[in-house]
Protein 1
Amino acid sequence: MSTEVRVPTLPESVSDATVLTWHKKPGEAIARDENLVDLETDKVVLEVPSPVAGVVADLKVEEGAVVTADELLAVVEAGAAAPGPTTEPPTSPEKVADSAAEAPPVAAAVADDDGDQVLTPAVRRLVKEMDIDPRKIKGTGKNGRILKSDVMAFLDQQSSTDDPDLRAAVAPTNAMDARQEKRVPMTRLRARIAERLLEAQQNAAILTTFNEVNLKAAMDLRARHKDAFEKAHDVRLGFMSFFVKAAVEALKKFPVVNASVDGNDIVYHNFFDIGVAVGSPRGLVVPILRNVDQMSFAQVEDTIRSFGQKAKEGSLSYEELSGGTFTISNGGVFGSMLSTPILNPPQSAILGMHNIVDRPVVENGEIVIRPVMYLALSYDHRIIDGREAVQFLVTIKQCMEDPARMLLGI
């Protein structure tokens, strides 16, 4: 019996998706709930599983095609056995033209002794997006299966001087190779990021105010309790939970910073949904911590840890990426000393954290060395005055330099 596989209902505000990767060809067997195709939207990659076990009879759209909800993607013959030879899936004219120049298939290099593919669909998508040859990655999973952690470890180890292919790209061996170009289309996520950043610059009056924070008290508090904290909650005590909770205290004092502009109206929010910018292989994403004022430090740390792992795996859901009233971006993890973060529309402010550096500080008339971080608050001057922005940042500074204020609500 033939079973149709259609585009699932897309999340609210998403009108279409792009066919990113087919994981089966016509004639290949597929198990029930096994991923058949990846669909890329503006924020996430959706996996479309097969509703039945059987054989893929036909693929109705090619990779790169734009599809809408309920559009027919493929046909699966339920319960059928896979025949010997198989036909190729739909291929775009560009891929046909380039087929002669493609490298030999790597399936044999990524298959175990039974002929099963070592690459899972999620890993296959990741190595494709990062343009990695999976034969260079040593799998640590069962039967040599390549895990997502193996791909991330491989990326961490690579540099422009370590990879011969990258060295060849930046140091051509002859004059003919000296001026090469490679044109790569933006992913939908990257295109959406570009669109939103441009929208923010065009539609908001963005200003940035700066301050510095002495983190010695927070670091001392963390050092005293981090072991007990981790033992009690099974999660490390980092600095993000301090800054997230400090931001909530500041937002309570200055609610306009937690507001947004809608036409000629200012929309005030009586809840605190904090976005935390996270880097992923596909680009910057901002998952949302909801109702942070009701969360403990441990819950904040655990949720941020979960978001970081999901971002690496590309498994963040639309719900986790939607909404938010305020954003925190930590450029310090990449070594940034100072920056001017850009708004995440329709939000009206964003806090930029930076690296922690030992700097000379005057205390009680004496120069001492303290761990200092520069902070930046970018805000929409249409609704937030400079006085409010400065005092907001001062409140965060006070909370971080005396963490007991957050516990006492002062």
Note: The chain has three domains: 1-102, 110-185, 188-408.
Protein 2
Amino acid sequence: MSDEVPTRVLVVDDERDIREGASRILARLGLSVRTAASGGEGLELFAAQPCELILLDLKMPGIDGMDVLRSVRGRSPDVLVIVITGFATLETAVDAMKEGAYDFLPKPFTPDQLRLTVRRALERVNLRREAARLAAESRRSLRDVATEKSRSRVLLELLDDGVLVVNREGRVVLCNPKAKELLGIDDAVAENASFADISQSSTCRDLVAAACRGELPASGPRAVELCLEGDRTLLARARPVPGEDGQADGAVLVLTDVTEYRRLDRLKSEFVAKVSHEIRSPLASIHQQLASVLYELVDGDPDEQRRVVTRARDRTRGLITLASDLLDLSRLERRTGPPAGVECDLVHAVEAAAEVVRPQAAEKNITLELRPPAQPVRLRADSCDMESVFLNLLTNAVNYTPAGGRVTVSAAVEPGWIAVSVADTGIGIAPEDVQRIFERFYRVKNEQTRYVIGTGLGLAVVQGIVTSYGGSIAVDSQPGVGSTFTVRLPVASPPE
């Protein structure tokens, strides 16, 4: 980065903390930083003074990030845009990259992630400045520039994106190591080889050929996705290189590996499909059971009507549990650490959870016994988190314990730690299932669990909360005997 002309950066985000935090971090890198709280304000600042780099939030009220991106790319195709977005808009982020965005930064991000992403973009800015300087010094052909042993070549080879340049005849005159890696091109045949001969993707060949013929607009790159072997996905962007005669002198192909983005996109789709299935089945059951009562399909039998309505209530409770577990998971994924300076009474948290499950335990004639520690114990934890942990464990214990059984909660105090155990006399867990019970949506399926309503998320939530506080959870279970889940957590201070 030049000391005389600092790189100008514009941060456009409707969240004040992100604007101010990014401004402080980028200013320490020697950059000239301006901020905008909306898309309209960002466009006004850019029109008044263009910049080389923009950090752009995709989701904003009024003019959203996609509209700002299109407007900026239309005015200045060379400006680098780093889109900022959350997990729920990964597909939108990929669409933004197809529109010409340079990179992608998911929320929430750390200062190191921001610095790393911006430094990669600054390398591209410096490369463009160096290329412009070299072009001003001498009118060389693309072949001369490709063989120039200069700083621009070094920077090009260090880029995380693949860059490949072909001349008017479609022969490769420049190919950085990342492009060779992504396309599987042999070093020995890369230089001066026909791109049509060495590329295995017909889509990529057609894209480069169209750019060489000048059929792609020079104001912005065209992007396509390439699906390669090994489930790899590349985003290929091509742009013609205009010559002095008005014809294209060649084409530049930029390749970005978006395999991880697509994997996250598939995970999101699988998650939505799983949740849709978990919600649809109980809703259909509720509809059918209530219809039986409303249309007197149970022949007016009060006991049968009570059974049907009770089943509908249980299904409704399952949906509420699913929604609660999904909210807990979402909260855990956004969390960067345990709440600072927050303490809670462990005994109170356990008793609050026990009060919620007592009616369900009473219906099954299950004895619920609490054995609190002799001294008060305070944890460095949020009380809602602790109640969620023991509510999930107690609910599972009651659900998987036959009528007339027993559920016991006990605690053991150690120096600096406390271990809380939830033991039941239930059906137990097979050894092969114990290894997977903390996976999301995993449920033990056998004849004994057939009618137990659950989401398969409770234990995943418990493990996520416990580990976020530096604790651990273990399980000891024997089929037909029962299970014991032990949560170990650090205490805020020695017991009084």
Note: The chain is about 45% helix and 20% strand.
Protein 3
Amino acid sequence: MIRLSPLSRTVSVLGILFLLIGSGCSRLDLRPKGEAPSCPHETPVPNTDVNPYGANFFLEQEVEEWKQRKTLLMAREAGLRWARQQFLWAEIEPQHKGEFVWEKYDHLVDLYEEYGFQIIARLDWPPHWSRRDNSLPNAPPDDLRDYADFVYAFVDHYRGRINYIEIWNEPNIWPEWGNRPVDPEGYVEMLRMAYLRAKEANPDICVQSAPLAITFGQEHPTPGKWISMNELQFLEEMYKAGAGEYFDILSSNAFGMGSPPEETPREDLLNFSRVLLLREIMERYGDCNKAIWFSEYGWNAAPADFPPERLVWQRVSEEEQAAYTVRGIEFARAHWPWAGVFNIWYFRQVGNIPAERADYYFRMVDVDFTPRLLYEAVREVTTKQSPSTW
């Protein structure tokens, strides 16, 4: 999810050699110390030879199973094969450390498998027992070891069924990092601890960094601190703190705002191709052989008469939304050899986002399951592609 505040203009929601075994995410780091070498672009990047079509789903909020099933059936018929699904730590380990309640999410995993989806599990939203200050439900726990232990339990419980996990969500903005300045070094410590515990549970698990909200930043009252930090600066600080050792795929948010997907990137512009600036940082630190997967991707198609002050993501027409979404994926696959899965934001909400909010107009399918032009455009392009190409 992304947000744009008038003060901060913060948009939220969104040479290294590998030894590849198993799922393609276990690795031996052979990076030389010192200055990063240039990137060998002719080398195939792992985790890019995949079906690129995915979406964000909210099945954990859906009460009736027939709606869960209809959602997945329609998504499957549209050619989607990836599901980015939030797994709320607060619901899985709700009362006490070490006491797990898996039934709800086991059922969701069963459904995703039945309909042929691979899951990208977003792991965040701590339980109350893990924090003294519970004023923000998505703030990190007081002791990062509690989160790392949860990641271990999750990976172990779903070993062989869920092969991709995201470690947190948008740590470069308030409120995802709590009532305090954002902290790239602090997030790297979370990432490090979670990565090591995840690999302990399953060496083949694919660990993805948290997607960063695209933002120009908002300064904190404390000098040198940030309420929300420009994601380019945040990623740079992550690499300086050693983050490159502790993820297999970089997650990115990519929203087109009011521009076509081919628009060139600039540091003072929020658009789809801004991800190229993240890629430059990766390559500058020698992280050439990792893919970028898109956690939240898309254009907003709010009505033409929508109040301008509510156009957080700017707007395009429904026709442009449909065309830009499929064109952006095709453009990236043709020109960006490191691009992997694109999780469209979002497939269908469950009725808790009113039409007065701009994020209502990202959907592929209405709450009543009426397909939008975006749905039809994705289905049209995927039906023309051979599954053997993935």
Note: The chain has one domain: 53-384.
Protein 4
Amino acid sequence: MEVTALTRMVAGRLEGAAPPKGASATTITGITHNSAWVQPGYAFVAVRGHVRDGHDFVADALARGAALIVGEGWRGSAGLPVPYLRVANARHALGDLAAALHGHPSHKLTTVGVTGTKGKTTTTWLVRHLLRSGGHRVGMLSTLGYKLGDDVLHQFPAHFTTPEAPQVQETLARMVDDRCTHAAIEASSEALAQSRLRATRFDVAIWTNLQPEHLNFHGDMEGYFQAKRMLIDGSRLAVLNTADPWGMRLADHPHVTYGHAENETGDEAMAPDWAATAVHEDGGMLRFTVQSPVGDFPVTVPLIGRYNIANILAALAAASRLGVDVADLQAGLAEFPGVPGRMQVLAESPARVVLDFAHTPDSLQVALESLRQTTRARLIAVLGSAGGPRDPGKRAPLGAVAATLADLAIFTEEDCRDTPIYDILNEMQRGAMEAGRHNTLLIPDRLEAIRCALADAAEGDTVVFCGKAGEITLERADEVLPWDEETIVRREMRLKDEGRGMKDE
């Protein structure tokens, strides 16, 4: 697309930017803010960060074939061999130009966005599954990867682990090319704050909840809230959780609600539109009756943990508003395959083996309490805590929760980065000891911790591996190692079974 046509398409959103001189014959084939990703014909957007100015990398971008430089003004722009487009906000321009370059793909899709602290990934996968049950061809973009119209989970290349605006728009365009009519998109607070989802139109936005997390990025809870509310503000309809006071601050937006059938205040005006009653949990099944604007109906869902009821209700509300009928909602829930790494059961016997992403004290407590209810013998938890600046204050609370709720807690690595591993493990151990518990082991190597837990597990036990499920790397000191927890655990389970078989012989 020629620069002149591209800038005209987004002129209103670029806050008055005009096509630069000499740009009429320049054709743009792609866009990025990372000079290392530039290919011939790309536009390079020079984003000013907290540490470096993207203009410092203009020479590298030009050497790689950049055909246009975009920035907020630069004294070196006059001497460039390619046009320079000056904009008021480079990150906004990155999103706007990427969307225009790909033909605004979200405008050709019915889109559902999901944001919140807990439950985003599960809810996003539920939304996609229910829309597919209603006969739609649905793409999905989540922290675990993306899907097009088929059911294959694709991963971004390692350097796109956190997709930026160009990757988001390119992926949505691929969904359109694959004849998708709908898309389910997980929206993190960082993605919203950094304009990665800018120029993406949302028909429905789901708010799960807001709890303290990522405050090193957002500063405080209000900053965290303001980032996440951007999804609601940019949507046509919100699906709000009545149990979350932060979300209910957004009730002036067109919305439907979900939550407990009986609210704590007894205020009928706060009664949710979608609610669950007569809840039963049996093994790996949730059974309850849904109360909703489209009638009351029973559902059975193969998921562990009552906390998942809120995720289910949110997905039901969104899918129903987009035309999926009750029979298809019921059938879809009954066949939901689950989410990789979210209470994912790898084995039921002799010991139950589960993967879960729980990595905060609150999420770990919910996960362990849920598993405790359906564990016949001992509960063994394997977990770590991130190094670097990633919420170091949660290490001791994680240790306390794990040691209190599990019969055996094995503390190990979880992306220790540049933090000495025993600094992390000793802090987790301190939390356990202050809780009056001494049922812990410290095993720095995660593979050895996995082997230890599986070797110790017996009939009726549950072993849960927390914190790494669904991720594809393990960060250790200055190394970034490939890591697939599901594959590793399945391999170690098989090796244990083969060893048992040889001993039995």
Note: The radius of gyration is 24 Å.
